[in-house]
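User: Sequence in, structure out. Go.
Assistant: Echoing your sequence, followed by the structure tokens.
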Amino acid sequence: MSKCTASESHGDEPIPKRVRLISHSDCRMMFINANSQESDLQSVISQDREHQEILEHSQANAFTILNENHQKELAESQAKNLSPHTNIVGFLIIPDVNSDSDGDKGSEPPLTSLLANIPIQNATVSMLIEALTKVLILLQTTSPRAAQLKHKSHEPPTENFTDVQRQNNKANVWELFYMVFNFVKDDKYMLHVTALCKAILSFMRGLGTGPDHLKLHWDMMTTHKSQWNQKVIDILCTQYTYMFEKSQLVSRSCQPIIDDITKKFHQCRSSWRKAQPCMLSDGARETMQEVGDQLVNQTNK
């Protein structure tokens, strides 16, 4: 494939000035490092899921025991016909001078909750649920996932780049796509080989490895929202970020990078769809010769 100068066009628009970030000789090493970073990220996600499953299991057990305690309390209360007052904060029995409660006798040990050996003999279920909810919220706020969300909230919401910097960002995305897919102009993406249907289905069922980091293919049959294409976008975003770190340029937040990559994908997919046979009015499908003739006519206009 012949090289293209900066004056050639990306489809219908001029190619932005290319910014050389890394040499092509480092491209393979960059993809390998990006693959390692992706594996580390998957490990963190797996640990977070295990932590969430433990929390959900503990919550289910806690509510089961609380319900059993409540049933026992109701049975004892109906048998003794007692209704002592309770302290909502600590669930401690408040002695009633007009009643003869077991709290004064001390003959039976009080029931305790899972929270911290708090007497709950006469507490209502709503009180117990409220206390348990506070504890679960505290556990969730200290989980790795909560720490990531808290850290993410401190990220700048928007990027404040000059027009020149925005053009450079656009050129960086073009450079990334050129290194990964080896197409100079957008209309060349009509030759892109879409991902195999078998590989996509295996990935969606959790059986396959997903997109190959060293040989990426889009699923051109669907939009960027598909599970496969979202994975491709994540891989490209990781590689883009690594390129910035390698070149020691000003770093960008993740979401604007994803937006730029997604926009570029839409342009490439639009070119790819132009080269696909359409269904004719008589029910027949266009031949590749007819598609080629239409593309030539559009180019000559």
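User: And one key feature?
Assistant: Residues 164-300 form one domain.
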